[in-house]
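Forum: Protein Structure Q&A
Topic: Joint prediction for protein chains with partners

I've read a bunch of threads here and the consensus seems to be that you should model interacting components together rather than docking separate models afterwards. I'd like to see that in practice. Below is the full input, 787 residues plus whatever partners are listed. Could one of the regulars post the assembled result?
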Amino acid sequence: MLLSELKEGQTGIIVRVGGNGALRRRVLEMGLTKGSEIYVEKYAPMKDPLELIIKGYHISLRVEEAANITVDKL
Amino acid sequence: MHKKSFTIALAGNPNSGKTTIFNNITGTRQKVGNWPGVTVEKKEGAVSKYGYDLKIIDLPGTYSLTPFSIEEIVARDFVLDESPDVVIDIIDASNLERSLYLATQLRELDCKVLFALNMADVAFSRGTKIDAEKMSELLNVPVVFTTGNKNKGIDSLLKTAIELAESKSKISQKRKVKYSKDIEDSISKLQSFIEERLEQNFPYNIRWTAIKLLENDKIVRERIRQKTGNKSLEILREVETHRKHLLDRFDDDPEIVMTDERYGFIAGIIKEVVTTSKKRRIDTSRNVDLLLTNRFVGLPIFILFIWIMFQTTFAVGSYPMEWLDNGVNWLSTILETSLPDSLFKDLLLNGIIAGVGSVIIFLPNILILFLFIAIFEDTGYMSRAAFLMDKIMHLIGLHGKSFIPMLMGFGCNVPAIMATRILESNKDRILTILITPFMSCSAKLPIYILLAGTFFSARAGTVIFSIYIIGIILSIITGRLFRSTLFKGADAPFVMELPPYRVPMIKSLIIHMWDRSKMFLKKMGGIILVGSVIVWMLTAFPRNINYSMDYNEEINKIDASFTEKQKKAAITKLIRAKQAEKAEKSFMGRIGKTIAPVFAPIGIDWRGSVALLTGFVAKEIVVSTFGILYATEETDEPDALKNALLSSEMTSLSALSLMVFVLLYLPCVATIATIRRETGSLKWTLFSVGYSTSIAWAAAFCVYQGGKILGFT
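Posted by a regular:
Agreed with the consensus. Here's the joint model:
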């Protein structure tokens, strides 16, 4: 499933990061690599963007960006 | 004896505490922030320690050295081209894994690197223990513990840096990231391929160059073209072969695979050096965010904070503003009475003091505003504000953070445009700067009050409100329009760190606030001075005006039978008539009359056009120019100007058109100077002025001609 489909409080394991070149590279460099555990901390009040916890720190992505990331729900 | 000097560069992630360490080493006044990308410019400081002259360079905070953003390019080019003696990588110990990504890239760059494990106390309190010795051994890099905000470990950091700079040993090639076999094969083949074809000395590490070429790094490709001349085609063709081979092998771009493998290498190190205890302390920052970015109360709290900021900036700020204003008035009164009448006096009083005085009174507002921004940034709230507002702002093609400058625009455009510094992407900044002037600033309000009050009496409030709404709607249209034309292309990814909340350091807040205000004073001074003098010259010249009648003679002729009071009134009337004629016949008046045909289609007469021209200095002046041109003054007869306007050719419709024009047309000289300063480009400044004025004319045209067609007057 897609990272953007995870609900608040759910955890997933990243399977694949898609998307265009620059965004994809940036997302990977921030540590959203294959096999990492990612936790959905919360969605912003208007359901976009969302706050995630990866490698022990908090990061936010827009929903459209998170929709490029495939995860396995834990 | 000459002291030896070394250059030390500080690299590190945003929020790693790099700037704090820089301040601690150099004592330089420089701002410390808590949101990504705070140091956009390169900052330097010099210090003498242990018998050495050290030049410290604060590189922009970056997460990586892939040249996507300007910060990353600046940081990498500095290390490559200026070859600092030592690079200190400030690593946020509480965020070790991600911080090591930049560290591995620095190691590959083939420079002398030293790691500062910063804020290890925070990491420890979170239950993470780091074995620095092991890390140093595994990565073959000296590691020093520091606590930037408590100024601990800075001395041993510098000592280690000097030792490293003095050491003659070659940079160890061991312990760098080792990629999987296929990639390593390609790297070494490419490496020897390049080496065989090099004629002159190649300035960069060959292994690093090979890696970057495999990663399709545009800047390195360009450099290969420059440095290897006609051999470059051959080399780049070889690169393509390898890239294709790797793509087939991994079914993914080599740069993606290599990023993955770097993180794999880092994971191995983490496993060796980090012990995490099971008991986890309560994460305060996360708890604070349960409230501050809460789905229901997050936005209301944000609005409340902004309201407090706005109120304090403009309401509390109005007191010192008044004191400054009184001071300026006091100064001009003193000069008025003590100096003999002369052209110089006129220039000094009506040109320089009036012009610069009208701008310097904004200083309290700016100080307060920047204190708030500094607090938002240093605590880490700024990135939360962006998080909360991003959805709305994204609809106009902007970043969440753009909300703050746009809102400030309702107060004053000068601090608002300076507040665009909180935006990292240059595109976002310029777009926000272009839009912000449409937020109707408080100086325009007196004009609306005068015109709406005169022509729409009972409905004045509604009319003024609509004017504000027109500004907001046009800013949305402009944003969408420019985003799909001038600033086309994918939006900058929103990928943004939400750093833990931190208690701001008072010292850093003050440095932060003062630095920006100083800039306002220094850089504005020049341009505003010139602008004020030009406008003064246009209104003060020519000196010898052919008056339609001899006013002095008329004053002398005033009937002696008048009472004192009648006499005084008659004199005032004549003096005002003279002033009005003088204004009409000055260069400014002549320009106004010349360009009046341009304003005719939007229902503004020559008086209106002169008033609008003088509004270039400051919007408040528009009202007083009307006062002069209609030979009235509001002070002694409250409704004199209103009555004069009502009996003039101006209609409700042309008044509305004038208000729309005032809302949108070229910003005041202080704002233009700020736009020039903040965009760093004359082209964008002229574009902003041209665009806003054209839109103003078009909108006023629609209002006036449309209104006429609909039968309004």
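The first strand of chain A starts at residue 11 and ends at 17.
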